[in-house]
Amino acid sequence: MRIIKESNIKLIEYNSAEFQQACQLRYELFFAEHSLPWHIVQDESQADYFHAAILIKNSVVAYGQLVPQDNSVYQISQMVVKPGYQGQNLGSKILLCLIDRAKLAKAIALTLHARTTAVGFYQRFGFQTHGTEFLSATTGIPHITMNKSLSSSLL
After folding, report:
1. Alpha helix (H) ranges present in 51-105?
2. What is the bridge-based pairing of β-strands 59-68 and 73-81?
3. Of the four listed, 12, 37, 73, 121, which is most buried by Cβ atoms within 10 Å?
4. Cα separations (Å) of 30 from 8, 131, 141?
């Protein structure tokens, strides 16, 4: 495990070099083992998303995206941390950055589809499970919907 003294969170642009690195990381950790095509991480609608990354020595080691939905609700998705950097709160930093960005955008709530193995992580940030487990249509991995209210009366 590499020890990180300081990490910089950066909002990255769609189709930038950093975005392409994030796509590669997402593909390697989420989709390659299922032999899915590369284009699964490339979607033009991502141009409208917020993309947060942590770079170490100009290399993306953590990433997450914030997707505008309807009615001032945003979805957090594709949260990923490079294996050699896991366990160092980088995922927490990305998540907090995306929550802050949603608040700046006047979001009233957040939603996400968590792998069931990550439920505890999101619960630490106030997300609550909703509904029943389901298998990802893309990977077959068990997930569950989680939600978090951002209204000031519930913070």
Report:
1. 90-104
2. antiparallel
3. 12
4. 24, 23, 10
The residues that bridge with 144 in the sheet, in sequence order, are 114
Q: What CATH number corresponds to the domain at position 112?
A: 3.40.630.30
Q: What are the pLDDT tens digits along the chain (155 aa)?
A: 444 445 689 999 999 999 999 999 999 998 988 888 888 888 888 989 999 999 999 999 999 999 999 889 999 999 999 999 999 999 999 999 999 999 999 999 999 999 999 999 999 999 999 999 999 999 999 999 999 999 764 44
15, part of any domain: yes
Number of helices and strands in the chain (H, E): 3, 7
Residue 85 located in a structural domain: yes
Total-model pTM: 0.89
